[in-house]
């Protein structure tokens, strides 16, 4: 089943590349139609084989005892090279430097972590939200790249076959609140959180249980030169996270332990990332030709 799925998707990706070969260019100008989303792909870089634009529309990140729903869209964009012998492709970041967009997600319960029970009346829930998720006591969590874009890895075969890591992403979590200051992070460039996201089934250590993603539905755009997947779900619940650092400014030595106590255990088997995406992939020559054909 997985082999059949892999062959089908790789055939589709090959069709994207072949479709690009028939495109010719004129004077340089702008992207139009469905190509406009690839405006920040470094398609003029000869190392880039594919352009990628992926939007995470929903999902959740569980970090220890904290669950943060993804309510604001997060975009991953750029390009990637041809794959190596293991099927891995090096990522090349967006030309505007925003490879992974920053979207502050609200942390339920705010800084104090007070979350209403599901059985409580709507009025009680509203009051708790009002008092504990306002500008003073509220807490936001923003996902950021922890390393350079070149440390991102795409594996088309794994993604298409719903087996193994299809996207490896080194990230850190920026926790923001007036009391915490501007430098409160879980993860860093020297100690990143590394997500090995799969469209298949995970194999985490306990207490986590296996969870399953999916590639979703595939369709072609622009005469077959752009591949779109809808309802793509990529997951990882086998990752670990370091303790919080930089929280509370000069009082970090007091505040960091408090934040870590709120988070609880963040070793492997206690965290989860579920990302629901819409993904667009185009052959870089097709994007370049679209640019050149539209003065």
Structure in words:
By secondary structure, this protein is of the alpha+beta class. The protein has a domain at 56-211 and 230-279. The chain has 5 helices and 14 strands. The chain has helices at 2-21, 122-132, 156-161, 252-263, 284-292; strands spanning 50-63, 66-69, 74-80, 89-93, 105-106, 140-145, 153-154, 165-176, 185-186, 193-198, 217-221, 226-236, 244-245, 271-283. Strands 1, 2, 3, 4, 5, 6, 7, 8, 9, 10, 11, 12, 13 and 14 form a 14-stranded antiparallel beta sheet that branches. Strand 8 and strand 9 (185-186) form a beta hairpin. Helix 1 packs parallel to helix 5 (284-292). Residues 20-28 and 127-134 have low confidence and may be disordered.
In short:
The chain has 295 residues and is an alpha+beta fold. It is built from five helices and 14 strands. Helix 1 runs parallel beside helix 5.
């Amino acid at each position: 089943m997985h082999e059949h799925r892999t062959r089908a998707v790789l055939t589709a990706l090959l069709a994207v590349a072949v479709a690009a070969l028939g495109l010719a260019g004129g004077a340089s100008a702008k992207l139009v139609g469905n190509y406009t989303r690839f405006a920040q792909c470094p398609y003029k870089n000869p190392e880039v084989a594919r352009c990628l634009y992926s939007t995470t529309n929903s999902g959740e990140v569980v970090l220890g005892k904290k669950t943060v729903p993804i309510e604001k869209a997060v975009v991953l964009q750029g390009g990637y090279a041809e794959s190596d012998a293991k099927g891995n492709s090096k990522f090349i970041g967006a030309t505007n430097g925003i490879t992974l967009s920053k979207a502050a997600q609200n942390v339920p319960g705010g800084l104090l972590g007070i979350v209403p029970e599901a059985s409580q009346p709507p009025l009680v829930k509203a009051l708790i939200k009002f008092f504990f998720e306002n500008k003073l006591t509220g807490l936001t969590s923003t996902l950021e790249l922890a390393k350079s874009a070149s440390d991102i890895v795409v594996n088309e075969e794994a993604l298409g076959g719903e087996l193994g890591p299809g996207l490896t992403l080194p990230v850190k979590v920026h926790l923001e609140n007036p009391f915490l200051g501007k430098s409160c992070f879980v993860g860093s460039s020297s100690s990143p959180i590394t997500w090995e996201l799969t469209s298949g089934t995970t194999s985490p250590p306990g207490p986590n249980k296996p969870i399953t993603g999916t590639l979703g539905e595939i369709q072609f755009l622009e005469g077959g030169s752009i591949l779109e997947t809808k309802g793509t779900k990529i997951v990882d619940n086998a990752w670990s996270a370091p303790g919080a650092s930089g929280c509370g400014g000069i009082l970090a030595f007091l505040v960091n332990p408090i934040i870590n106590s709120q988070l609880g255990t963040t070793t492997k088997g206690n965290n989860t990332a579920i990302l629901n995406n819409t993904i667009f992939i185009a052959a870089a020559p097709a994007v370049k030709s679209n640019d050149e054909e539209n003065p």
